[in-house]
Amino acid sequence: MQYLPVFLDLKTGPVLLIGAGELVRAKLRVLLAAGARIRWFATDGDFELGGLHDDHGQIARADGDPLSADLSGVIAVLCAGAGDIGVAMSARARAVGLPVNVMDDLAHSSFIFPAIVDRGDVVVAIGTGGSSPVVARRVRERIEALLPARIGELASFIGDFRKTINPRIAEMPLRRRGLMLAPRQHQCADRA
Q1: What number of other Cβ atoms are within 10 A of residue 46's Cβ?
Q2: Which of 66, 130, 132, 181 has the most CB atoms in a 10 Å sphere around its CB?
Q3: Closest C-alpha among 88, 91, 90, 136 to residue 114
Q4: Which of 178, 152, 151, 181 is nearest to 165 (CA)?
Q5: How many CA atoms within 13 Å lie on the side-chain side of 59?
Q6: What interhelical angle do 172-191 and 151-165 show, nearest 10?
Q7: Chain centre to alpha carbon of residue 172
Q8: How far is residue 70 from each of residues 67, 74, 76, 80, 179, measured CA to CA in Å?
């Protein structure tokens, strides 16, 4: 495994997005769906959303040179269709310890975007280490076909149930044992 799949809490700060054209709009689509706050530098000056909607005011359009942008509070830097600015921004982000993705440029990225299956509380990330996005997309399509559309609702329900169990059973091994035994005990009671 070349990359560790992690899930970034986008509520902790804005994402700096630099780029232009359909490539940047593809990133906007993913970021908006994930609830990110986005500070967007359109390298071509075109802030057209191309059919996307910023209903919740998640996008702050930024003017000026992204290479001199204030990075305080930023949690990640994304460059899509940014040209040479992406490489320079990568160096700047890495110098201050920010994760950076320069689309289709593994050498200047500290993280990559996986193919994503989104079912609400259930999210599956599929990666190939950047070697074959087509394979990742095909695997994503297969997983999407297998996962029930409402599995995220089930995960949410179980999460609510966990909130009532955790305070009652302090030790994790006992919690897991109790949750695993509960269905078996129920089955035995049905047979009696």
Answers
A1: 11
A2: 66
A3: 136
A4: 178
A5: 23
A6: 110
A7: 28
A8: 9, 8, 13, 19, 48
Contacts by residues 68-74 (CB-CB < 8 Å, ≥ 24 positions apart): 69/16, 69/39, 69/41, 71/16, 71/96, 71/98, 73/13, 73/14, 74/13, 74/14, 74/15, 74/16, 74/39, 74/98
Beta bridge partners, 77, equal: 16, 100
Encoding tokens for residue 186?
């129920």
Taken in order of first residue, the domains within the chain and their CATH numbers are: 1-113 (3.40.50.720), 151-191 (no CATH)
Task: Please write the tens of the pLDDT for every residue from 111-160.
Answer: 999 999 999 999 999 999 888 989 999 999 999 999 999 999 999 988 88
Structure tokens at 145: 């076909």
